[in-house]
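Dear colleagues,

As part of the handover before I leave the project, I'm documenting each prediction I ran so the next person doesn't have to rerun anything. This entry is a single chain, and its sequence is reproduced below.
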Amino acid sequence: MFYESGALNIGVSQTLSLHYLSRISFMLVIVLFIFSADESNGQSAAAKNWVGTWSTAPYAAANNTPPAPYLANNTLRQIVRVSIGGDTLRVKFSNRTSSTPVTMNSVNIAVSTDRSTSVIDASTITQLKFNGNESVTMSTYSEVTSDPVAFPLTPNMNLAITIYYGQIVTASDMTFHYGSRTDSYILTGDHTASADFAGAVTVERWYNLSSIDVLVPNESAAVAVLGNSITDGYGIHGGQNKWTDTFSEKLLDNPSTSHVSVLNLGIGATLLTTSGVSRFQQDILEQSGLRWIIVFYGVNDINGNSSADNIINAFKNLIAQAHSKNIRIYGATITPFKGHSYYTTTHESVRNEVNEWIRTPGNFDRYIDFDKAIRDPVDTSKLRADFSNDWLHPNAAGYQLLGESVNLNLFLGADTLYAQPVNESHYFEPECASVGGNWEILTDSQASNEKYVVVKSGLQSLNDPPSGDESLITIVFSVDSTGSYSVFARLNCPTANDDSYWVKMDDGEFVQNNGLGTNGWEWKKFNDYTLTEGEHTLTIAYREDGAKLDKICILNSSFVPTGMGEEAENICDLTEVENLNEVPDGFSLGQNYPNPFNPSTIINYQLPAGSHVQLKVYDSLGKEVTTLVNEYKPAGKYNVNMNDLNSNLSSGIYFYTLRAGDFVQTKKMTFIK
């Protein structure tokens, strides 16, 4: 063989080690690979872009921290299988969930010779650098990307990423991904140069890995998949055998789609309506070279008793976000689960309703019918027995079937430009609006502004809306354009006996909104309205006591608000309120205390109803000195601390005036230096 011949005379031996020549061969491959890639078809570096070839969704480890000897001052080898190839790559590492820094003393990549073991081709070891340095520290809640590095990455290659850690704290918030479905390997000390991690402790997780990008011709692009445990490959081990792997192989084998990569961003045991929506921007839309998205989500939401409307609203949110980036988005139908504990006739009805919406033209750009591909032809509410693991998740053959069922024609071209609407969204805090005396403002750290509004216990108006301003919450707002708007409310309605309101827009009739039950704080839709440009008034009246109202969103897009929403236009500081739950009988302005004062004094006032409040200070000649309050305040008793004015005040008499609605009152105070 060439490696054993004496044709290379280096003056030391008539033979050259296999390892040394192998490394020379690998470096020659790198040079030739880069040269041929740049020269073929007239391509140049300027005609290339970064495209993701592998990715995962990092999140907090919780109880899935690595086993002893842990990671600090030890070496971790992790194996991934890429999608498309390229001559230059970069790797992103993540510490996005951790409250402590992570130091990587050294990181390299190499070809994995067997994805089910730790063995690598040592001749292919390539050092990664970060701003020219081999070591890097990721600060808290951050990510870092390596410098671009030449490496002949071939399609479907198994790649080993080996990290020699310095500082890393074994804690529940360390960043990882549960569903690697293949072993990672831990050895004590620095073993970055080791070809085989014999005797290593194994763990079926990925730690601190985020994504791998390749520099490829502009025609190349990525499809990112958002999903739960079925996408994350529940039930398989020993290799990369998720349905997305089969799908990727199918794309690579077809000359028309061999430039398309597949990125799996599935996380097991997650919900579309919470995790799926909240992580869509970071996990999906920020992927390099993204052109298509597949959403295969919803079964866990159904088991959590989400309604079809809630699931569909979440889909609409994702569709709007994707189209705002001119990215095509496909929906995958929810596969059946009869025979599993998830199954009830009600859950099956929701699944069918959601699937019907997914299949309806004009919702997703196109759909992938996983339900039809894997369901039992006789009993369509369950998986085919030969493709089932536990009647919820497919087995290995089932995953392969799903991957093979994807129509490759969906991934040709896709240069559609979507018309971008002018989106408006307006958020309001009800406790900062005009709140009638029959309502209470209470505190909850999980509420926006840490306050929410609830009608006083025992007050109900089931058949007709209540009368009188004391029963109403009134929000005055303006929109910039005429069109259709939706009103959403962030609610906490724990039972069917406290889940409704009366709502009206402007001078329209009150409309009953019932069946708004939630699991904790959730956004629920009230009504749709056609609004003209300009000012409008939203009025909310109680129907059942116990229904808690935290925030209002009025918007003209198909987005559904998430989390606590954006900052409210009428945000107010309620920390100065003496007693939110005790509504005064009338307006009043109290005498400041102490009086005379130096350096500060307290002014108190009370409001029987929400009002726009001005509290101003004047000198003895009537010249305005300062404005202490100039904003809307809900009903309540308030204390205002007047200070930080000493350097500008002369000793003497001053006046302070309260204006609230039609109420005006002035009092005198004395400042002494």
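The chain has five domains: 2-39, 46-216, 219-420, 425-555, 577-671. The radius of gyration is 32 Å.

All the best with the project,
I.
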